Amino acid sequence: MKAVRISEAGGPDVIRVEDVAAPAAGPGEIVIRQRAIGVNFIDTYHRTGLYPIALPSGLGLEGAGDVIEVGAGVERFKVGDRAGFCSGPIGAYAEMHAVPAARAVKIPEGVSDGIAAASMLKGMTARYLLKRTFPLKPGEFAVIHAAAGGVGQIAVQWAKHIGAVVIAVVGSAAKGEIVKALGADHVIDSSHEDIAKRVREITSGEGAHVSYDGVGKDTFNASLDCLRPLGMFVSFGNASGPAPAFEPGILAAKGSLFFTRPTLFTYTRTPELLQETADDLFDVIAKGIVKIAAPTRYALADAAQAHRDLEARKTTGSLVLTP
Ligand code: NDP
Q1: Cβ contacts of residue 146 below 8 Å, gap of 6+?
Q2: Range 109-118 average pLDDT
Q3: Which structural domain range is residue 229 located in?
Q4: Which of 65, 68, 160, 277 has the fewest CB atoms within 10 Å distance of its CB?
């Protein structure tokens, strides 16, 4: 089968598509013939070495398709089921992938493989951020960075459904139109606006209750400066590079702020937490509360181009590879 492999860390050019042996289901595993593979920013961190992985390696944590083999001891899945996964093991950029059944979820009728691969990792992230890391309440001001991106588009819609006042930060006017259409109350275009200053204006000088910041380095100061006393700085990603090290005293100086650096893996660390998170996501998708835009599709062989476009801020919504 065809699979993406990297043998060194680096730019998108380290991505190679190779012929490798098809996987077999070990005990507790299922093999999925993938119809769609999710592309996530974390895949670029694995590729560059920002998050070191053992090399040579495959890439990718997320996929959806048909179960074609079931390993010993697996009871929750049978051959022919549709299944998805979004927490690895690394190597999802391939025609088939062997996954621990405990890390896989059943995909409901009515959710296509493409929509599942476009929404599981990003949607479960939006879910834990908004409902567990800082449980948003109606009327609270929430700053959502990279709001037109994969996680961002889902988070904007879900936060609106909760009743929050959404301040969406985007990098261009075109992306601003997208988040307005999704219901964002306020849009800040970071290409020419001062994020913290605009948040202060919007919140009558008070600041926001929470900043959900997956951009990292470039928005670190803006997130610190846009919060009200006791506000929550949720630093969950590094799209522009990692957030800097800082003195805890800065949180005191800015108003006894809270800071957390969460990961999806912690919030879905047991099969029960994973399934609960997935069920909630698929429920809001089924009810039309969160609409998943048709993902931008790339052939598996064009995985490097998908990474280039994602890193160049050219994309909106989700990207999937088609094997
Ligand atoms: P996105 O589709 O959101 O793409 C990243 C976006 O970040 C870009 O489109 C761009 O939007 C913005 N951005 C700002 N500055 C830069 C820069 N210098 N380089 C690249 N992008 C920049 O990606 P994902 O939805 O896959 O992920 C969003 C973030 O969430 C990532 O940081 C990712 O690592 C993180 N994440 C964290 C998880 C966790 O559990 N901790 C789980 C899942 C994702 P714009 O042009 O509008 O500024």
Answers
A1: 152, 169, 170, 171, 214, 215, 237, 239
A2: 95
A3: 138-261
A4: 68
Q: Count CB neighbours of 206 within 10 A.
A: 14
Residue 36's DSSP bridge partners are: 64
Mean pLDDT of the chain: 97
pLDDT (average), residues 42-50: 97
Could you tell me if residue 194 is inside a domain?
yes
Backbone angles phi, psi at 31, to 5 degrees: -105, 130
Residue nearest to atom 35 of ligand 1 (CA): 237
Q: What is the pLDDT of residues 154-192, one digit of tens each?
A: 999 999 999 999 999 999 999 999 999 999 999 999 999
In testing the pocket of ligand 1, which one of 121, 215, 308 has its CB within 8 Å of the most ligand atoms?
215
Q: What is the pTM of this model?
A: 0.98
Say what percent of the chain tops pLDDT 70.
100
Indicate if 143 and 256 belong to the same structural domain.
yes
Count of structural domains, the chain: 2
The verdict on residue 7 lying in a domain is yes
Is 128 domain-assigned? Answer: no
Mean pLDDT of 260-275: 95
Asked if residue 69 and residue 171 are part of one domain, the reply reads no
Asked whether residue 102 is domain-assigned, the answer is yes
Best residue for ligand 1 mutational test, from 313, 314, 318, 319 (most atoms within 8 Å of Cβ): 313
CATH at 311? 3.90.180.10
